[in-house]
């Protein structure tokens, strides 16, 4: 959402709209700070009526192999378990009308070019709008150069002559200066003197929007005349270097350098060290990563406030306690840090900080705090991933991957987990406890992908290392991985024995997380093997371990799924349905797509057993669509479960007839996830009304909203006016108005009642789930 007014660019917007009407690949090209991103966002918003617009911010993506994952996250797609992530993106976009905005491509130029070249032929409804400092050179690409904002034409009245009234600037650069000057210093107005001074400043800055914005902030501290004089002096001082760089790059660099000169020595040091962060960060991270004897922790807040005041550091949102750097600002800081010689130390502190944060989260990983901890880790996702890169450079990757389990587990990212763990294990071959811990978790994530052979190999190596070290805790974790790999692959008897041995050792070493995991797996394997009584006993043990009133979602989702299978095996159909509906609600609360897909399938089996074949076809269609987003392996690769899925699907097809079954299956597959889970949990026999579903097809469900937007949406759904929302959240009414408008745009809605309808369906999942406890 734009938080400042959009100024000028009438010509470029018209050209962009024309290009988007005729071309499927458009790249906005220009130097850093020229306003490519703002233009792309505005242009995309104006063509949004033609379909969904998805914005993918790439500055935090440091490796080309992560590009498909960044796009997947923006689209709301899960990790692919058994195929390249790009395949899931291609399949998802194949039949959708969408504009995909890829912002800041220059550091991933080849990867973005290959990505676009692959997507466009397979997704005829897709348009790609990219921003970059150079063209991608993709076949069919149309390039629109984004120049600096124009300066007033001499004699137009905007050149300092007395003929132009206040506000009629005659050029986009001066117009931007006036708008930002009024924001920085309310009451600012152009007269004959200030117009000439402002024009001199805009000309000195070559009309580059970022440079103008950086300069106008200084009006809080300096009169305009003095600002122009000091800027001119600074240019004279700094302009001599980097003569091979384009003049506009020199100007922007000099402007940032000038802001740097206006900072105190401590602020400059902090600016440089902040460059190791990716995405957004909080004060605790700054105090941990950026401090030493030269920059004490107790002084950091004061210097951070100084950088915010100077617009070097930006607040991530109006009410957020998180911060970020613009790319050009971060690049300048990174160069400064490299020159100072403190980059490696700062990166090591970055790794240490996020490892400690992950270990703090580990303690609450399987408690009622789980969802809140996971959502907090999502805020740090960019920094967790860049920490993995830093760790790979300083020999600490195998240790860090062993600490990332909660982020990867709750988010349903087993493919990302095994990819990083493969790298860690190849880079650091030593027979250490850290390696054994990563191998044990590798086995878990391989099992969730149905790759039982890889899981067994990892567990066996972890077991060998644990025995060499005489570490009983690691031994218990290695046995957990080996037992799950055997049992899920269908070797029930041997798998059960190994899991029971793991459970005994978990109790002996007091590993509460491990005990909860192994008891859950015993429950699952009993259900999969057709041993319902053993499954129900393990269910009771898991609930006892986690607590009767727990709000833990990941393990409880699995054990309720297992309980449903046990009841289904015993022919207790109503009980099976109740348990599986609870499992869907729990899996949905963590956005765990594969778990949702598997549980919807099992509810389809329940519906077949009840003779509700239309409901079964809808549920199986929704399940198949979600499973396809993740990959081909489902139901944890268990042979018995896969056979059951085929049996129940065939029965529903036989009762309905091939044509009718196919029609209903496609209807279920077309449901947005929030609609599919609401349909499942509310035990409906007719599909939801069209209103929210149609809107969700154009835009996204509640999952696309930020936490603040979700808060606002929920209050709107309760019938509160914008003013009442503002009072409840202690924000201005104008901010509440902007939030509501943005929510409507994101969801593709035109009225507040549609928000209430969508959240009503979404809330039903939670309400019904609570009743099932």
TrEMBL record:
Assigned keywords, A-Z: ATP-binding, Nucleotide-binding
Ranges of residues in domain HTH luxR-type: 698-763
GO molecular function list: ATP binding
InterPro entries named among the record's database cross-references: AAA_16, P-loop_NTPase, Sig_transdc_resp-reg_C-effctor, TPR-like_helical_dom_sf, Tscrpt_reg_LuxR_C, WH-like_DNA-bd_sf
Keyword tRNA processing listed: no
Source superkingdom: Bacteria
Pfam families listed in its UniProt record: AAA_16, GerE
PANTHER family according to UniProt: HTH-TYPE TRANSCRIPTIONAL REGULATOR RV0890C-RELATED, REGULATOR-RELATED
The protein's name in its UniProt record: ATP-binding protein
